[in-house]
Amino acid sequence: MKKQTQYVVFTIDRHRFALRLSHVRRIVRMVELTPVPEAPAFIAGMINVQGELLGVVNMRKRLQLREREPGINDQLIIATARGRTMALIADAVVGVIEESEEGMTAAGSVVPGAEVVDGMLKTEEGIVLLHDPGTLGLDWQLGAEVVE
């Protein structure tokens, strides 16, 4: 029997992306961001989630997509990897899909050097790019040491 993995699928513009469900803690609506001086350009700011300060990754900038200001209808995907938790800005969260690990194609086998893409899935709706939160900005230091 093939091992099935669940993925949270989200959109930015018309592009579909996914994170492993095991990395996602929760999904919340966009809130006001606190700017962080001298942070990397893809860090949109910080938020306070139940007393925990989290860095917020602007996925448009991180993935080099068409930029726009975050809006009140955007979603924040709270994800954890490598012992760190951050929020990722998405236009919308589509839902959860379940796919076999065998159905995933490694990004490096299709596009060598695609550092922020972990893999690709072929679904009925089209290609979904898989991401590891650790490559999307969780290695950015927010006054704390990264735990491997």
Describe the structure.
This protein is mostly beta strands and 148 residues long. The protein has one domain: CheA-289, Domain 4 (OB fold (Dihydrolipoamide Acetyltransferase, E2P), Beta Barrel), CATH 2.40.50.180. It has helices spanning 59-62, 107-110; strands at residues 4-12, 15-20, 24-29, 43-49, 52-57, 75-81, 84-90, 92-100, 104-106, 119-123, 126-131. It has a six-stranded mixed β-sheet with strand order 8-1-2-11-10-9. A five-stranded mixed β-sheet has the order 3-6-7-5-4. The longest helix has 4 residues, at 59-62. It is globular and about 45 Å long.
SSE topology sketch:
Layout: E1 4-12, E2 15-20, E3 24-29, E4 43-49, E5 52-57, H1 59-62, E6 75-81, E7 84-90, E8 92-100, E9 104-106, H2 107-110, E10 119-123, E11 126-131
Parallel strand pairs: 2-11, 5-7
Antiparallel strand pairs: 1-2, 1-8, 3-6, 4-5, 6-7, 9-10, 10-11
Descriptive keywords:
148 residues, mainly beta, OB fold (Dihydrolipoamide Acetyltransferase, E2P), 2 helices, 5% helix, 48% strand, disordered C terminus
What best-fitting shape do the alpha-carbon axes yield?
A: globular
N-to-C series of helices and strands: EEEEEHEEEEHEE
**Low-confidence blocks of residues:** 140-148
User: How many strands?
Assistant: 11
The helix count comes to 2
**What is the CATH C level class, in words?**
Mainly Beta
What is the averaged pLDDT score? 82
Spatial order of the strands forming the largest sheet: 8-1-2-11-10-9
- Straight-line N-to-C gap: 31 Å
Please indicate the percent range of residues in DSSP E strands (runs of 2 or more).
over 45%
CATH T-level topology: OB fold (Dihydrolipoamide Acetyltransferase, E2P)
Secondary structure class reads mainly beta
Total individual domains: 1
Main beta sheet: strand number and arrangement? Answer: 6 strands, mixed
